[in-house]
Amino acid sequence: MPTPPTVLWTFHGSALVHDYDAAVKQLGRLIGLRPIEFSDSTDPLIARKGGMTWIADNSIELVQPTVPSGGPAKMLARNGPGMFCFAVHVSNLKETTEWFDHIGVKWVGSVEGCFIFTHPKDTAGIYLEWSQMDGRREWEPRFGAKVPPVPGKPLINVMRIDHWGALVGNGPTDPEATFNLMQKMWPAPVLWKNLDAPHDKPYTAFWAGDGVFALYRCPESADEMERLWGIRDVGPRQHLMSLYVDDLKSAEAVFKQEGIRILRGSAKEGLIITHPADLHGIIIAWTDKAVGHLAS
Predict the structure, then answer these.
(1) Rg (the chain; Cα; Å)
(2) Domain architecture of the chain: domains with CATH
(3) What is the pLDDT of residues 27-66, one digit of tens each?
(4) Confidence (pTM)
(5) How many CA atoms lie within 13 A of 107 on its CB side?
């Protein structure tokens, strides 16, 4: 009898960008991001220039699409730049695929290739990657690879990834149904659940072994979407990277200095959302409070 996957840790979040080099340069200077792996692949499943980078205690993959017919290019054309995928490392990828087959969740990729993607149509519109990257010890810090030094002195001191966020729609993929689906696919420990949470706070959060994956209710209009997240395309998706910083007031001053617009929030409130257009399309939340303060 197949069994659900055991998630050991977050592999990475993924963000689509128009210009990988420019994104690395800006985010390196701003928050100490540095590449740990790079490739320029024409494989239709990957089809990108970019790779894994490291921030504080975890990884974000920056993806510049290179193949017009590839998945990343189609996603960029459809949704624009920004966060688009959440990836986890599992203990046994073969057993994970057997579980997804058992519950009727479609996936692409291969066990031999060390990673698969589940189809967003079967996962409430959220694009998820499942990996068992035991063979990537040459660059993966969690297998002992050395993290490159921080480039210079970053303008903002990021202590850790606070959480990764995804938007959940209504209809058949409403918040309750999505919560149940996620627990069926991957019975992660639940940190909190409140189906009546406002759109600017996560209604539920799961423990991913070394971090937090949170679900937000999707705004119901383009105007509300733009007010909360700086984009107008309404719909479910992976959308957010939240960073825990040591001094939010200083970060607020850096945003003003660097011309990075604050979409909403303030250091006094303990949460700032910066405008994605000023950070290569990536929606970033900045906080100096524990993730539990978002539970409503």
Answers:
(1) 18
(2) 7-143 (3.10.180.10), 158-294 (3.10.180.10)
(3) 999 999 999 999 998 887 778 899 999 999 999 999 999 9
(4) 0.96
(5) 24
